[in-house]
Write a structure and sequence with these properties.
Keywords: Signal. This protein is an alpha+beta fold and 103 residues long. It has one domain. Helix content is 30%, strand content 25%. It has two helices and four strands, in the order ααββββ. Strands 1-2 form a two-stranded antiparallel ribbon. Strands 3-4 form a two-stranded antiparallel ribbon. The longest helix is centred in the first third of the chain and has 20 residues. The radius of gyration is 19 Å and the shape is globular. The protein starts with a helix and ends in a 12-residue tail after the last strand.
Length: 103
């Protein structure tokens, strides 16, 4: 019986640790400088921006996955600012001269 309890306790500890390691940083709990610094240090970071929203933010275009992607400026909510400037990768189509303006 005691062995069963110890084994269960160990499994709970491992599962809790794995869950804690898998949580995304949340831009809403960091100031803008911290958000930008984390992205600069890591090169690319998946961050939560809301309760059910997240995206991958990058330091520059070299962090984008495909040669047809570029790093574009976007804004995320931060603890100290409503609009903190960051970059994310977006597909680039050289034939599309008007972008999203024509949609």
């Amino acid at each position: 019986m005691r062995r069963h309890v110890l084994l269960t306790a160990a499994m709970v500890c491992v599962a809790t640790f794995a869950y804690a390691q898998g949580r995304r940083p949340d831009t809403r709990t960091m100031n803008c400088e911290e958000v930008q610094s984390m992205i600069a240090q890591r090169g690319a970071v998946v961050m939560s921006t809301g309760r059910h929203t997240y995206d991958r933010y990058v330091s520059d275009r070299f962090q984008c996955s495909f040669s047809s992607e570029v790093a574009v400026r976007t804004y995320v909510p931060a603890l100290d600012r409503r609009s903190c400037p960051v970059r994310r990768c977006e597909m680039y189509d050289p034939e599309d001269r008007f972008g999203d303006f024509m949609n």
